Amino acid sequence: MMTPSGPRVVPQYRNNVLWAPLWCLLSACVLVVGARAEQFRGPVAQANWQLDASVFECRLVQPIPRFGSAVFTRRAGEAQRFVLQQANRHLANGEAQIRSEHPEWRETAQPEALDAVSVQSGAQPLVVDWQRSQRLAAELRTGRRLIISYAPWDGREQRAEIVLEPVGFRAGMDGFNDCLSGLLPVNFDQVQRNALYFPAGYVDLPESELEKLDRIALYASADDRVTHFYVDGHTDGLGLRAENLELSRERAEMVTQYLVERGVPEQKIITRWHGERYPVGSNRDPEGRAENRRVTIRLERRDERLSAQRD
Q1: What is the tens place of the pLDDT at every residue in 276-304?
Q2: 159: which residues sit within 8 A by CB, 6+ positions away?
Q3: CB 232 within 8 A of CB 251
Q4: Which of 30, 81, 229, 262 pairs as cysteine with 217 (C-beta 3.0–4.6 A)?
Q5: What is the DSSP letter of 109?
Q6: Which own/partner contact pairs does 221-224 have at CB distance under 8 Å and 24+ positions apart?
Q7: What Rg, from alpha-carbon coordinates, does the chain have?
Q8: What is the pTM of this model?
C-alpha cells in the first residue's frame, strides 16, 4: 500500500496545540500589564507632608514626583480647600475618582470609594471644597492613603493614578490648625478695592463702613509689600458743585486720617477728591445717589517676583 505524498499537517497541529497554553499565558500577562494604571507617587520614606504657614495663607503640601503637588490650603478670608497642582499637562477635562485604602504594609481593610470630583485642565485641575477636604483629611489622619484615579489628557483608555501617602500627615495637620488661628480676617484681593458709603450730607461713616476700614488697616500693617493707598472722595449730584467738591474732600481726608491713626504710613496715602464728577449710579433716584456718596480705596502692592528679578 502506497504512502500518501504531500505535507503532513498533524504534527504542525499538535505543535500549535502544545504552544497554545503558553501563548494564552503571555497574552494574559500583556493584558494585565496593559491594564495596570500609571501611578504618580514618591518613595514612602520621602512622602512627608510639609507645612507652609503665614498670616496670609496656611498650606500643607505633599510633593508628587513627575506630577506636581497635593495641597490642603486655607487663605485668609476664605474657606479651606484641597487642591491638586500640576507642573505639566496630565489631567484631562472630565471626572476623577477618589478612594482610600490602607498602605501596602497594612492589609486590614478593603479600599473605600470616597467621591467623584470634576477635573478642569490647567495649573490647578482639581479643587475640592471645604466639606469634602475635611473628609479627605480625616482619611489621611487615620493612616489611610488617598488614590486619585483619572483619565490622562492624551486620550488613552488606561486611567492614571495619583497616590497620596499619610506619612507625617497627623503632625502636619496639627501645625496647619495652629496656623489657622493666626490668619488675617481678609486677603489682598478682598481689600485691594473697596468703597465706603456715606449718609447724605454727612462726613462721618456708619459703624459697618468703619469695620471695612479696620480690616484694610489690619491687612496693610501685616503686608509690607503694599506700597500705595489711593483714597478718592465722591458725592451725589444734589446741591451746588463747589459744595459737593468740598464735601468730597472732607470725606476723603476723614478716611485718610482714620488709616493713619491705625498705623498706615501717611506717605503711602494719595488723597484725592472729585465732587460729583464721577457718578457710578443715577442721580435721579435715591438708590443711585446712595452709590455715589462714597470714598473709594485702592491698594497697590509690590510684585515679589519682579523685585527678585531686578535684584
Answers
A1: 999 999 999 999 999 999 999 999 998 75
A2: 37, 149, 150, 151, 152
A3: no
A4: 262
A5: S
A6: 221/262, 221/263, 221/264, 222/55, 222/56, 222/184, 223/56, 223/188, 223/301
A7: 32
A8: 0.77
